[in-house]
Amino acid sequence: MRFHVLTLFPEAFEGPVRHSMLGRAIQRGLLSVQIIDIRSYTHDIHGTADDYQFGGGHGMVLKPEPIFDAVSDTLSPYPTRDRHAFPVVLLSPQGRKLDQQLVLELATAPGLVLICGHYAGVDERVRTHLATHDISIGDYVLTGGELAAMVIIDAVSRFTPGVVGAADNVQEDSITSGLLQHPLYTRPSDFHGMTVPDVLLSGHHAQIDRWRREESLRRTLENRPDLLDSADLSLTDRAFLAGLGYVGISSLLDDGFESQE
Ligand SMILES: C[S@@+](CC[C@H](N)C(=O)[O-])C[C@H]1O[C@@H](n2cnc3c(N)ncnc32)[C@H](O)[C@@H]1O
Q1: CA 7 to ligand 1 center in whole angstroms
Q2: Coiled-coil ranges per the record (predicted)?
Q3: N or C: which end of the chain has fewer CB within 10 A?
């Protein structure tokens, strides 16, 4: 997976792409992250990448020319067919909200171009005539697109083969599995009187699996009941949820399970 990031602040990426899982994946050649300074595609001695808004208004707007040139230059080494398969993503609070479904869609591409806006935003022609995707990482406004780009790089990388080791199976993660994950514990088993549930110390794998599944269902019901609508639930799962008094989804009432009331 190749990430190409257009930004006015290349130094913002120095830490994140060097450390942890991402840094190791880059060293092993599983990922590449190219940081492109938008200013290097400006044509005046001041490196002017932004300008006043037509029509007046607060805040500067990123100019279209350096961004169009930078994207064209970035994709030019790729064969035409690959170029068309490259999502060109404009980070924007106005875009489609990022979720696991979108992460999985992006992860199937050979790479991504990520355009980080700043100040008041980016000239609209970038969105209408250059970007293939307009993505928001949530309903709040960031100062710039850099953190949003890092979120996308991190989330998409987890689905690049080899980046996450088998020991940390992404399919067991919250959301990816369709539910929230069960609680996790490590040593010590007793920390200032805060103890680990006995079942986890029992060595009884079937009971541990059942406890984890039930805690996962309980936690999902408490924190994200919306996920249960599309989760892959067995009859035992449904019976367990019904026992918790949950009658919120129609599928729960199928297969003979009645409301608790
Ligand atoms: C201060 S914001 C501009 C917001 C713009 N005035 C608007 O109302 O849509 C500057 C830049 O930060 C990035 N940004 C801000 N919030 C974001 C979000 N929730 N998701 C993705 N990018 C975001 C975008 O690249 C945006 O161009």
Answers
A1: 13
A2: none
A3: C
